[in-house]
Design goal:
alpha/beta; seven-stranded parallel sheet
Length: about 575
């Protein structure tokens, strides 16, 4: 489905043509063609099968544009775009798209200051160069500076957990707008993808234009990038891009499906619809002019001959084949989680006492909480020495004697040293209820060395869980390199579980490795890696990652009631 790619080319032709001073009507035609293609639900390849006449039936597509579409579909290129790109520096195209600039201002900046990149634009703004130009005052320069910042930030993906609260607050604000009947957060956030580039919202309303106008006036909005009758794109004050789409109430389900699934999942569904002689769009499922479904997502999938596919699975990673064959997994649900198996207290680098953590866990209805303070190797965490660790274990057990459920597990997150040995001696490990082992140093060991390191750690008879196995920090540190198949095979042999750490900048194991581990028969441990009580909310992210990994409630430690969990932990040691 090349609609988006082709639309982008026409958009760029319009920008470059305007920069070069082309006829305004021709420029407008390119922008209109881009919008038509962005909005087109049917793959342009399918439309083009009807020849030039079929393309001419599309809004805003004349003979010249139709020829360009056919040229692109045949060759993967467009001569007009290539010719303009030879006359307009590539960096200038990026400058034109900064809110507050546009083609005419970009031309002025280029002609008079030689600005042909975002970097040069920033440097010129820092020096105050634009203030020397006609029509430029401090306010205009500041607006361009803000626009530049918005574009630079919006171009980066952010951890889902870092924006989820903001996203839900914005959702609440959208639901309160006049004319809104329903609203939902969609896109990669609804699929629990570990990072998001923007936020996508769907609204059901009979008064779309009124909703859009109210949306762009919300106090969270910093800059309106695009606005139409049924959609808008804005930048929030924190630089995050937000897209809004409004559909009629009877199209709510098809709109949800359209805005939630990955591009690849959506293409597969549209192909499936075409095989059945149907058309699928954000407005519904159609046979000719007859609308067969659209009010609910379940109805959309049912009309296509599929059971409902949960949002987290909609990545074209085999879910459509599984649905057709009746083997979709029964996914883990947040409501099934009975406790958190990695949190930190004031005994190391946590911010809360045992009492405070217990209260927080109780408010969530948990049966247990694994208090797993660091071993001393992580110096910044201030973990207790072996002797102090025994005192901490005793303190937790005394606490349990004077408190009812949830039960605090006396655990530890023990560092795996570079040679694979553990940071606590066995005489400490055997006293712990729960032993997590993890990597916090020497991240650049070779794949062979890192694998050997982890395998040796898993040989220790007191280890229960391999915690945040890849040691990644999203956007800051890459995963360690290891032979994960060998690691998971060893963990299975040794009866060691692997963790999905839901802390928002870890999300570790990532969904692909978690799926591999679960498929190899391993037990999964979920945690938030909480360092303060409010971090316990990140269990939702751990569960979301588990869902993306096709994990059901079977073989998830956190689903076990407290007696069964303790039996599993003791059984690991043959007790």
């Amino acid at each position: 489905m090349r609609n988006q790619e082709l639309a982008r080319l026409f958009e760029e032709i319009g920008l470059m043509s305007e920069f070069l001073g082309d006829n305004p009507f021709r420029v407008r035609a390119y922008y209109q063609a881009a919008r038509t293609l962005y909005d087109l639900d049917t793959p342009i390849e399918e439309v083009a099968k009807g020849g030039k006449e079929a393309l001419l039936a599309l809004p805003g597509i004349g003979p010249d544009l139709a020829e360009k579409i056919l040229e692109f579909l045949a060759t993967g290129e467009m001569r007009k775009h290539r010719e303009l790109a030879e006359r307009v520096p590539k960096g200038v195209l990026a400058v034109m798209e900064v809110p507050g600039v546009g083609p005419k201002t970009a031309r002025q900046l280029y002609d008079e200051l030689g600005i042909d990149s975002l970097e040069k634009l920033k440097e010129a703004l820092d020096r105050g160069d634009p203030l020397r130009l006609k029509g430029f005052g401090p306010k205009r320069a500041e607006r361009i500076r803000e626009g530049l910042g918005l574009v630079q930030v919006a171009g980066k993906r952010r951890p889902l957990g870092a924006v989820l609260s903001l996203a839900r607050n914005l959702l609440a604000a959208i639901r309160d707008l006049p004319g809104v009947e329903k609203a939902e957060l969609c896109g990669s956030a609804r699929r629990y993808k570990d990072t998001v580039g923007d936020l996508d919202y769907l609204v059901a309303s009979e008064r779309s234009e009124e909703v859009v106008k109210a949306f762009v006036r919300l106090p969270q909005v910093k800059e309106v990038y695009a606005q139409g009758k049924e959609r808008a794109t804005v930048f929030l004050k924190n630089g995050l891009q937000v897209d809004l789409r409004v559909v009629p109430p009877e199209s709510w389900g098809s709109g949800l499906q359209y805005l939630t699934g990955s591009k690849e999942h959506s293409i597969r569904l549209r192909s499936l619809a075409q095989e059945k002689g149907l058309k699928l769009s954000e407005y519904g499922v159609y046979r000719g002019e007859e609308r067969l479904a659209g009010e609910t997502e379940e109805g959309v999938y049912e009309t296509l001959g599929l059971p409902f596919i949960p949002p987290a699975l909609r990545e074209d990673h085999g879910e459509i084949e599984a649905a057709l064959e009746g083997r979709l997994p029964r996914l883990l649900e947040l409501s099934q989680v009975k406790g958190d198996l990695q949190v930190h207290s004031t005994y190391s680098d946590g911010q809360n006492s045992l009492e405070e953590l217990w209260q927080a866990a109780k408010s969530l209805g948990y049966q247990y909480l694994g208090v797993t303070d660091h071993s001393p190797a992580v110096r910044v965490a201030g973990g207790p020495s072996p002797e102090e660790a025994l005192k901490r274990i005793e303190a937790i057990r005394r606490f349990n004697e004077t408190h009812g459920p949830p039960h605090l597990l006396a655990g530890a997150e023990v560092d795996i040293r570079p040679d694979g040995s553990l940071d606590y001696p066995d005489w400490v490990l055997r006293e712990l209820d729960l032993v997590l082992v993890s990597i916090h140093s020497n991240f650049k060991l070779s794949k062979a060395e890192q694998t050997k390191r982890i395998l040796r750690a898993l040989e220790n008879p007191f280890v229960h869980v391999l915690a945040h196995p890849t040691a990644r920090l999203i956007g800051r540190r890459a995963s360690v390199e290891a032979d994960w198949e060998a690691v998971f095979k060893k963990a299975k042999e040794r009866g060691v579980a692997v963790e999905i750490d839901g802390y928002y900048d870890r999300m570790d194991l990532p969904d692909d490795l978690a799926r591999m581990a679960y498929g190899m028969g391993l037990w999964i441990s979920l945690s938030t890696d909480a360092h303060q009580a409010e971090h316990l909310r990140f269990m939702e992210l751990a569960v979301g990652t588990a869902q993306r990994a096709w994990i059901g409630p079977e073989r998830v430690l956190n689903v076990l009631p407290y007696p069964q969990l303790t039996a599993w932990l003791k059984g690991r040691r043959g007790l």
